[in-house]
Amino acid sequence: MERGGVSIPVFDCVFNGAESITSFTREFDPNFYRILPNLYAVCVATSSHGQKKIAAGFFVKTSYHHNDPEFSTILASSLETSPNLARFHTLGTSFFPSRLNVPDSEPLSEIEMLHTMLTLFTKHSVGGHG
Length: 130
Known about the structure:
By secondary structure, this protein is of the alpha+beta class. The protein has one domain (7-126). 25% of the residues lie in helices and 35% in strands. It has helices spanning 30-35, 71-80, 110-126; strands at residues 7-16, 20-25, 38-48, 51-62, 94-100. The chain has a 5-stranded antiparallel sheet with strand order 2-1-4-3-5, with helices on both faces. A hairpin with a 3-residue loop joins strand 1 and strand 2. It is globular.
């Protein structure tokens, strides 16, 4: 049985190989953001000819936890509802979520989100997962 929950997309990005990143900060209600307990940075890997590559990423603030059975559905929904990332929602798409321990409930700056995404891109690309 699924429990109810809420998620808000915060930030999207598309990796243009290792050369550049195109980012999009989403609009959201900061008061609503502050009451949700979990912030995830998620790398999106696509598969082509048996090779996985990190193609995009996003941040989502949510009441869900990665141990919840519906967590992967929440990630897929976040991808589908993004005008920038919906094209990556195909068979063979993989998610690499990282729960962030943020000391306060204030939203991260765009620079902080970009830095986190680039770190995760490097980790999953070099680590052999992406």
